[in-house]
Design a protein that fits this description.
Bound molecules: pyridoxal-5'-phosphate
Largest sheet: 6 strands, mixed
Distance between the termini: 37 Å
Strand order of the largest sheet: 3-4-12-9-10-11
Number of strands: 13
Number of helices: 20
Structural class: alpha/beta
CATH topology of one domain: Rossmann fold
Strand content: 5-15%
Radius of gyration: 20 Å
Length: about 425
């Protein structure tokens, strides 16, 4: 499989080169030259196949011969060695829980897969790779955990001081080893700006091989197709589900659309957005307009100009009529988000996080207009990561799961950084 740049001004590359580079040299996102079809055997047998086996079959054509079979099977097995349960919430709606990984966020799968691929590739080359990533919370934790101890890979995470939740900060700052957390005195946009500048700075890129670990990177984006397969493995209805995806950078939903294009039976997608509604507006009007991000309660979705939107357009050959037939947009306000958390908790006992709440609400709206359908929403984070939102709404504390309880006793280690590029440059040139 070769990958081309959506900006069309760079040579095609294989999976290895795309993973190491992150982004194409012309600034474009990499996109696969063709969409592989799932084999009839895979579609026929996959309900009874092991999770790791499904993962391997789905990702094999994208990786092609850049990773040998036994290594790739091992990577797949480690990537998905936790549960992805489909939990009924009402008689028409089920939650696909994607928060059973080590950092309680769905980004664990992409981060674990990418880190292991990069670890394998870096064993073959002499120069170490630096993963440079800005986070508003969840990405950093998943990346830090996924890359911990991977030889030949150093990880530098920029996060906005005081703007991530206490649990998220501990996930970023307590690992040590090859992980460094830079605590930026600024907001998430400052972190992202500094990272972008570093990628364009020849002084830095001559000194270090830099790569990104957000969903721009094909090795983090493509394995997200697994979720949709695991949802279908557990789906009991005859007709294919409607799937609602809480969306920010649109990497996750775009992966779902890739799986659908490969033959996975999904009836329809709902792109669930908070007030950052550029894509939802495009789906309704056919006009796309990027905007500055606005702050909401579902902060991992606060993206004004989603980077994977270009991949969605490419998949549908830029045809609005085709995209909007397969994907509906929905916009859910903060008031609706908290009202949904409260109502669903009272009526069903199910506790949503703010991102899952946006998706569930969007799905309810779609199902009310399509009364014969059933749906799944992706619950992308554990509610304990957003106690400041969830606890006042339900009037109770969210118990900390055993998986992360150990974090609470660890000591934060971060390097304070002013939000100006000179400071980051100096750090990276050390
Ligand atoms: C990153 C994230 C999202 C958004 O996913 P995209 O792939 O960027 O659309 C949704 N929910 C949570 C909890 C996240 O961390």
């Amino acid at each position: 499989m070769r990958y081309y740049s959506l900006n069309q001004q760079a040579p095609t590359v294989d999976f290895k080169a795309a993973t190491i580079a992150g982004q194409a040299p012309d600034g474009g996102l990499y996109f696969p030259e063709r969409i592989p079809k799932f084999s009839p055997e895979l579609l026929h047998n996959f309900r009874t196949m092991a999770r790791a086996e499904v993962a391997y079959e789905v990702i094999r054509p994208y990786v092609s011969d850049t990773i040998p079979e036994d290594v790739l099977r091992g990577i797949c097995a480690e990537t998905v060695d936790f549960e992805f349960p489909l939990v009924p919430v009402t008689n028409r709606i089920a939650a696909l829980e994607l928060f059973h990984g080590p950092t309680l966020a769905f980004k664990d799968v992409g981060a674990r897969f990418m880190s292991r691929c990069l670890g394998y590739f870096s064993r073959q080359q002499t120069a170490p790779v630096t993963v440079l990533v800005a986070t508003s919370g969840d990405t950093g934790g998943a990346v830090a955990d996924g890359f911990l101890g991977v030889e030949g890979v150093e990880v530098v995470i920029l996060y906005p001081s005081g703007k991530v939740s206490p649990l998220q900060e501990l996930q970023l700052t307590t690992l040590g080893q090859n992980i460094t957390a830079l605590e930026v005195r600024g907001n998430f946009d400052d972190c992202q700006r500094l990272v972008k500048q570093a990628f364009l700075d020849p002084r830095v890129t001559e000194h270090r091989q830099l790569t990104s670990a957000n969903s721009i990177n094909v090795a983090r984006w493509l394995p997200q197709q697994f979720y949709y397969c695991y949802a279908l493995q557990q789906w009991a209805h005859e007709t294919p589900p409607v799937v609602a995806v809480p969306s920010g950078n649109f990497g996750n939903i775009c992966a779902g659309l890739m799986a659908h294009a490969s033959g996975l039976p999904i009836g329809h997608f709902v792109a669930a957005c908070n007030a950052n509604s550029a894509v939802a507006d495009y789906l309704r009007t056919g006009v796309f307009e990027a905007r500055p991000a606005v702050v909401t309660l579902s902060n991992a979705m606060d993206v004004g100009n989603p980077s994977n939107f270009g991949r969605i357009l490419e998949l549908f050959e830029q045809r609005h009529a085709d995209v909007s037939r397969m994907v509906s947009g929905a916009i859910v306000s903060d008031e609706e988000t908290t009202a949904t958390i409260k109502r669903v908790h009272q009526e069903t006992g199910y506790l949503l996080d703010p991102h899952g709440a946006v998706a569930l609400r969007a799905l309810e709206q779609y199902l009310s207009e399509n009364p014969t359908e059933h749906g799944i929403f992706l619950e992308t984070a554990h509610p304990v990561k957003f106690p400041e939102v969830v606890e006042p709404v339900i009037g109770a504390e969210v118990p900390v799961p055993t998986a992360v309880r150990g974090l609470l006793t660890r000591t934060k280690q971060s390097v304070l950084l002013e939000p100006d590029y000179k400071a980051l440059q100096e750090f990276l040139l050390q």
